[in-house]
Design goal:
The protein is built from nine helices and two strands. By secondary structure, it is mainly alpha-helical.
Length: 263
Amino acid sequence: MLNLNFAIQDLEFFLLIVARITGFVHTAPFFGMNNVPRRVKVTFSLLVSFLIYQFVVPHYALAYDTVQGYAILVFKETVSGILLGMSGNVCLYVVQLAGSLIDMDIGLSMVSLFDPATRQQVGFSGALYNYALMLILLISDMHHWILRAFVDSYEFIPTGRINFDLDSILNTSIRFLTDYFVIGFRIFLPVFAGMLILNAVLGILAKVAPQMNMFSVGIQIKILVGLGIMLITVGMLPGLSDFVFNEMKEMMTAVAGGMGTAQ
């Protein structure tokens, strides 16, 4: 016979787990895409919360005295889940930076597409790289690693015992911004080199054949050469995904370390 008896302390403990996983699912890469129905996100959050409550997290008494104290615990759990999810999601924005630089260099900066995953207007190259990176994330089972990393975070961040180390989180954010531009420019570098050589060639042709309208001809040549370089360098995508996924792992680990057990 199914036993439906439970203590109010167990329910309070379970709700804290639900708060953290809900914040994580709504902001994490792949899990938090906007085109995923909200009912699916809520159902998935409740299912994972039950599994974590039943098999992963040891149960203990929560340290609070009033309703306001419990509300603060819920708020902290939600913020911790959002930070863990966002720390992985922001790493995917590197390809958006590289895509905007590529579009600006090859003459496609005026082209914008509506991305249903983010519900934002994005550039052509950024959307192309973003979908390619998302496919690699699924093929490489990186979404499984992200979920396992969240479950393992309960070893560093026990339920109801969160201590936000703002200095650690700030230093992690500053370090990420440095890596953000470095990785973005590495992706952009082949197109930049090709466009630099092409501009030199067009400058020479403008002097040799001044009757040729280099403005109208150069726009079309830049687009063709830029797309050709992107096609030739498509083999860089596995290496690019390694850069981004390693950064994602470091970010999530560092953010989890910045929310250790409160003393």
